[in-house]
Amino acid sequence: MAKEMIVVEGGTPLAGEVRVSGAKNSALKLIAASILGSGESVIHNVPLISDIVVMSKVLETLGARVKREDHTLVIDTADIDTWETPYELVSKMRASISVLGPLVARFGRARVAMPGGCNLGARKIDMHMVGMEALGVHFETDHGFIEASTPNGLHGAYVALDFPSVGATENTMMCAVTAEGETVIENAAREPEIEDLADMLNAMGARVSGAGSPTIVVEGVPASSLHACEHTTVGDRIEAGTFLVGGAMTGGPVTVRGIEPGFLRMALMKLHAMGCSIDFGDDYITVSRDGALQAIDIQTLPHPGFPTDLQAQFMLLAAVAQGNSVITENVFENRFMFADEIGRMGARVTIEDHHAIVEGVSSLQGTDVKATDLRCGAALVLAGVFAEGTTRVHKVHHIDRGYEDYVGKLSSLGARLHRELDEDIDW
Ligand code: EPZ
């Protein structure tokens, strides 16, 4: 894949309406969940992004057949004949670990490559393993692979997670679906994508309740009773929040459609506190701003707290607001790389441990910057829209992992930007 960059001409306000795609952080798990039900599952509103391509390949290496029809995936899992995932795919995308729970629930075993770390930190899976061990799963590590087995079958259990980990909640919930008896998951993650996954599991014949609350209850059912289903992915709240930040930054009004406003309650509260006007209906949110952008303090926390996946985007807003803001990152140990890049554009950000102190400035200057993860990359393109002059964002493959047609959607809001081949600079 040739390296590309996004070239942005600054100084253009964003205004108009975009429809968000289906949620990356739900669709990836819905694809994994299809392993549980033998037959042809149909998943609608799946975003056209590279992470979905990787997860589809993971399913195909297991023996499933995956067909894409526009934004719909048709996944036939009847012929899945292996429970091993290859390192080269799992190392590309941490979310591949989401096949662990479904494979064990269906086959009683799994061999999944250990996910590596990433730019955000160690990205351990100890809580995934603790949750599944409580259900009777036995883990061994073998040459970089996790070997899961169930010598005495799967049984319901009371599981209390040390931290409301999204991935650990999902894997434990999917594994519990065929565990004999009742499983209670305490301190469960409450992200909207967890509810979306539980809805699909129930459509397949599972019996999950409490998703979206801190306590999830799963009544185990026989694996043979689970079946394929048809499901529509919820809208992507992080993509929506990214475009709304663009509207807040340049004044808007920007409307995002295809999103449940309740998914973004905390982020909308922060936009309002920064001086923005918010309007919303059943499936849209509109952000606009007349007065100056005010400084803000933000603590990233598990849902319903402020989403860490919007931290870089709000650091950009704080960078061009009046006054000083403090942004505290409580979820990942290393998620301030955006500060270094935005600093090259004239922002004033000081990092102290897991706090970022942001001193607002009135303008940013376009220059060369590089995406270090998908949210940092998306925020850097927005910074280029605001900055004076031209900004070239390198390593845009990070953005393509989680944003469908980011350039096209921003162009439809009035941004002047395009993609082009990146000369061979090893950014
Ligand atoms: C999901 O990652 C999302 N990814 C992330 O989105 C998101 O930032 C994160 O949830 C938090 O909301 C997908 O859904 C594919 P966690 P996940 O388990 O499940 C530590 C994006 O930009 N931890 O809630 O990996 C972990 O290291 C991505 O779309 C353990 O220590 O998140 C992290 O510091 C980035 N042990 C914290 O907990 C474990 O067993 C939160 O992780 C599991 C997690």
Concise summary:
30% of the residues lie in helices and 25% in strands. With 427 residues, it is of the alpha+beta class.
What characteristics describe this protein?
single chain, 427 residues, alpha+beta, 4-stranded mixed β-sheet, 30% helix, 25% strand, globular, binds ligand EPZ
Provide an overview of this structure.
- This protein is α+β, with helices and mostly antiparallel strands.
- Helices cover 30% and strands 25% of the residues.
- The protein has helices spanning 24-33, 50-61, 87-90, 100-107, 126-134, 166-176, 192-203, 237-250, 265-273, 311-319, 337-343, 374-386, 397-400, 406-412, and strands at residues 4-9, 16-19, 40-44, 65-69, 72-76, 109-113, 138-142, 145-149, 158-160, 182-186, 207-209, 215-219, 230-232, 254-257, 277-280, 284-288, 297-300, 324-329, 348-352, 355-359, 368-370, 390-394, 416-421.
- A hairpin with a 2-residue loop joins strand 7 (138-142) and strand 8.
- Helix 5 packs parallel to helix 6, helix 6 (166-176) packs parallel to helix 7 and helix 8 (237-250) runs parallel beside helix 10.
- The longest helix is centred in the middle third of the chain and has 14 residues, at 237-250.
- The mean pLDDT is 95.
